[in-house]
Write a structure and sequence with these properties.
With 370 residues, this protein is mostly beta strands. The chain has one domain: TolB, C-terminal domain (Neuraminidase, 6 Propeller). It contains 2 helices and 24 strands. The strands form 6 sheets. It has a 5-stranded antiparallel sheet, with no helix packed on it.
Length: 370
């Protein structure tokens, strides 16, 4: 593992950088530009040899190597449908990537009943994915262009979690026979675990692990407990951070801290109801969260264990200081500095990486400053 860290640091050290010093409550840091010109990037992943994989919404998987963005996209990707908010979205490596080379992608795809989120995997060989296999297809799909999700996270047991949105049709999030508005849990090859909470229940999709989620665009494993944490967009207000528990109902649209866009009218039955989960943290008004990572590195020791969340609408980076499942404090960083932050990743080098969301987007990292 130490070799991986050294390779990554060496590969990125020579990157041209325009840096500025920012001061937070705990640390001073520089914002260092690593690459610019990405077209609506959505996610990134760190390869063991120091390269970075970056997805672009239009359906391109890019490689950053030796400080340069390779002009040749990776070939062999699935057919991606760009539809509203949907396109090529998350990228994740198999936990045993060093042995099997498997890369996982979430993306919007068209079917007979519309467009919905799918997940495929293939072996990365040079500039190509080989042996591509679709392991999940959202069912039913839909006609609207909103709320595809979709983050991919492997837990410590090797199960794959897929976060899905309600596809802009709020009532779907409470339907047992609908994948929309839920967290999906699978084996790494797409098989359904026999201990999923709704397996064997008539009328329920066995892949479902939760229900009542509006649109989850951030997910990460807690570094101590190993539990999956996600955040989701509320409507006008009511963005949430949640701890994901098997079979739990997160309430949307029956309960929410948000209101209808523009007119501000009530949605559902209020903000609480027995049998439905309360968020760990919420934002009113909305910040439009996207991307999330726990920090466990050594470059910013006073941030150890904190949760970092990007924001699209609010154009900032949120730092949450935690005590178990309690948020002690929220700090807002980089407000208006980088623009819309789409993804947040804690790198194996102990630094924090950010992707912005625009037509000529930026990949940057936070480095300690005196």
């Amino acid at each position: 593992m130490r070799t991986v860290f050294v390779l990554l640091i060496g590969a990125l050290a020579a990157l041209p950088a325009s840096a500025q010093v920012q001061r937070s409550e705990e640390h001073s840091f520089r914002v260092v530009e690593l690459a610019r010109g990405l077209q609506q990037p959505w996610s990134l992943a760190f390869l063991p040899d120091g390269r970075l994989l970056v997805t672009e919404k239009a359906g391109r998987l890019r490689i950053l190597q030796d400080g340069k963005l390779d002009p040749q996209p990776v070939a062999g990707l699935p057919d991606v449908t760009v539809h509203g908010q949907g396109g090529l979205m998350d990228v994740a490596l198999h936990p045993r990537f060093a042995n099997n080379g498997l890369v996982y992608l979430s993306y919007a795809a068209r079917g007979a009943d519309g467009v919905g989120t799918e997940v495929a995997r293939g072996r990365l060989a040079g500039h190509r994915l080989e042996g591509l296999q679709v392991i999940f297809r959202q069912s039913p799909k839909g006609g609207r262009g909103q709320h595809f999700g979709s983050r991919l996270v492997f837990d410590r047991q090797g199960y794959l979690y897929i976060t899905l949105g309600d596809r802009g049709e709020m009532e779907r999030a409470q339907k047992p026979d609908d994948h929309a508005g839920s967290v999906i849990r699978l084996h790494d090859d797409g098989r359904v675990p026999t201990d999923n909470p709704f397996v064997g229940r008539p009328g329920w999709k066995p892949e479902k692990f939760t229900l009542g989620n509006r649109n989850q665009q951030g997910a990460a494993l807690h570094p101590t407990t190993g539990a999956l944490w996600t955040h989701e967009h509320g409507p006008q207000g009511g963005d949430e951070v949640n701890v994901i528990r098997a079979g739990a109902n997160y309430g949307w649209p029956v309960i929410t801290y948000g209101v209808n866009y523009g007119i501000g009218t009530k949605i559902g039955e209020g903000t609480a109801k027995p049998g439905m989960e309360q968020p760990l943290h919420k934002w009113v008004p909305s910040i439009a969260p996207s991307g999330m990572a726990f920090y466990t590195g050594d470059k910013f020791p006073k941030w150890h264990g904190d949760l970092f969340i990007g924001a699209l609408r609010a154009e900032l980076l949120v730092r949450l200081r935690l005590d178990g499942e309690k948020v002690l404090r929220e700090e807002r960083l980089l407000q208006g500095t980088l623009g819309r932050i789409r993804d947040v990743r804690a790198g194996p080098d102990g630094l924090i990486y950010l992707l912005t969301d625009e037509s000529r987007a930026l990949l940057a990292r936070l480095e300690p400053a005196p």
